[in-house]
Amino acid sequence: MNSFQMAWRSVIRKPIKSILLFLVVFIISLFFLSGMASRNASIATQNKTKQAVGAGFLMEANEANKHNRADEILAKKDDGEEGNFDGVNVEKIETEYGTSWRVWYDNSFQTLLINDIEKIAAVFGISQYNITTAVTAVNPVNFSRIEDDDVDQSSDLLCVSLIGNKDMELDANVLSGNVTIRDGRMITEEDSDVCVISEELAEKNNLSVGDRIQLNDRHDVVHAAVFEAEIVGIYMVQQKMTPAMSGDTYRSENIIFTDLGFPEKAEGSTSGALYEKAYFKVADVDQYDEVKKAIQKVEIGWERYDLIDNNGNIDTMSQNFNDLENVSLILVLVVAGASLIILFLVFVFWMKGRVQEIGILLALGTPKIKILGQILLEAFMIAAAAVVLSFTAAPAASKITADYFVEQQVQQADEQSVLEEGKVAKSAEDSEETVTGVSVAVTPELMIYDWLGVAVLVMVSVGAAGILIARKNPKDIFSEIN
Predict the structure, then answer these.
(1) Taking the model in full, what pTM does it have?
(2) What pLDDT is stored for residue 420 in this prediction?
């Protein structure tokens, strides 16, 4: 009779103990898979203020990642040190109330990376793409902006707002149908130093297509270089565009669309452009889901971004959803530690129930290592069946685990928001983000890691429990039996 036959007979001879080990390993494997899958979960959220329009995808910077990167940079600097640290600026300010610190980001730190945008644009199925700059406040030089005469302007920047586009036809305001051209045309990729102004701004300043307006850096309106932009179009709106912030600087009538490179020049930026959004148009609507999967496979630093589909749904990686990755890792570590203890006790129970059998084998001259090997083989046979069965239940268990973790994270974020209410400045319109689903995948790679983890736990547990037997000789074992 070979070892496998002996192991199988031993397994079926004592079904209660075999079933006990089977259930323990099954649960351990299930927890391992759930924890590992949750670490790689994708969180689908819906943001009511960031709707992509049409058959396309909108990419924006992930705010949580931006703050995490800034924290990592600031943690490396010396206490009390001022200056620019990889795009994060730190300045000490002395006030009558004491010392305070001002922290702000350069454009180079916040911007979407042009190389990443171009990689996505190259995906098969993407027909066109657009890049949009952040709303940029600049000083109007040779024209007047629209103002509310009944509002105190002392706290306003007294500026107009520029929005640069690679291709204005793909700007979100145009795609939605809210912005249309009254006179002239839209801005194209080939244009440089051009703009499209509102009909209100044109009427107030008696401007028309072909005229040129002048703008410069708002921080030094007297000495800053003046840049000219030719008016190639005049637009009108169905509804006023939502302002980026409060004040007449950002009101709908004072928004000027320009070519992609103009806002950077007009604001006098020394840290490059600030690309806030990238829109990718899908050529064939029927291939929408396939294109989305292809985009998600592009090798870029996805932790920096949110990818928003045409329903306003955001796919963000789990590491960006607060501490989901860390919580999942803790689950895996706790399961590993608890499993080692439980399996050790199970195998001690196994061996104590087989003391007589072990004693007889030792008396017949069977090496202790062979006896332990036989027990290990039995354990592996049961564990293999338990692990394979756990693979079928893992997707559902992983989904439940990830949903629970995300729910806890959302609750924690809501509680934190309540605590910080009134303590932090907010933009004119808050970004309301709602979790609409959690996607987890139990991949073949995770299954391999799970099997290896269970195998190591079984080997260590059998070895640790076997020490209790290996230290004894047959005479001692038979004495215990008597």
Answers:
(1) 0.62
(2) 43
Answer for the pair 221, 206: CB distance below 8 angstroms, yes or no: no
**pLDDT tens sequence across 149-180:** 888 888 899 999 999 999 999 999 998 889 99
Q: Of how many residues is the chain composed? A: 482
Give the Cα separation of 173 and 166 in Å (integer): 14
Residues of the domain holding 400: 3-41+323-414+427-481
Contacts of range 202-205, beta carbons closer than 8 Å, 24 or more positions apart:
202/231, 202/234, 204/144, 204/146, 205/143, 205/144
Task: Return the amino acid letter for 5.
Answer: Q
Domain match, 171 and 225 both: yes
Q: Is residue 100 part of a domain?
A: no
Instruction: Give Dmax over CA atoms of the chain in angstroms.
Output: 111
Domain boundary among 292, 318, 344: 318
pLDDT tens readout for residues 114-151: 999 999 999 999 999 999 999 999 999 999 999 998 88
Neighbours of 230 (CB within 10 A): 14
Q: In the prediction, which pLDDT does 31 show?
A: 81
In the prediction, which pLDDT does 192 show? 96
pLDDT digits (tens, 9 = 90+) for 22-67: 888 888 888 887 777 766 665 555 554 454 446 889 999 988 889 8
User: Among 213, 187, 189, which residue's Cα sits nearest to residue 201?
Assistant: 213
Q: How far apart are CA 176 and CA 161, in angstroms?
A: 20
| Contacts of residue 203, Cβ cutoff 8 Å, sequence gap at least 6 | none
The residue with tokens 């008396």 is: 363
> Quick one: DSSP state of residue 429?
S
Q: Are residues 404 and 272 in the same domain?
A: no
**282 and 180 assigned to the same domain:** yes
Q: What does 199-263 look like in DSSP terms, one character per residue?
A: HHHHHHHT--TT-EEEEE-GGGTTTSPEEEEEEEEEEEESSPPPPSSSSGGGSGGGEEEEETTHH
The amino acid sitting at 67 is: H
Pairing verdict, β 226-237 and 194-198: parallel
Share of residues in the chain with pLDDT > 90 (%): 37
For residue 286, count other CB atoms closer than 10 A to its CB.
8
Number of domain units in the chain: 2
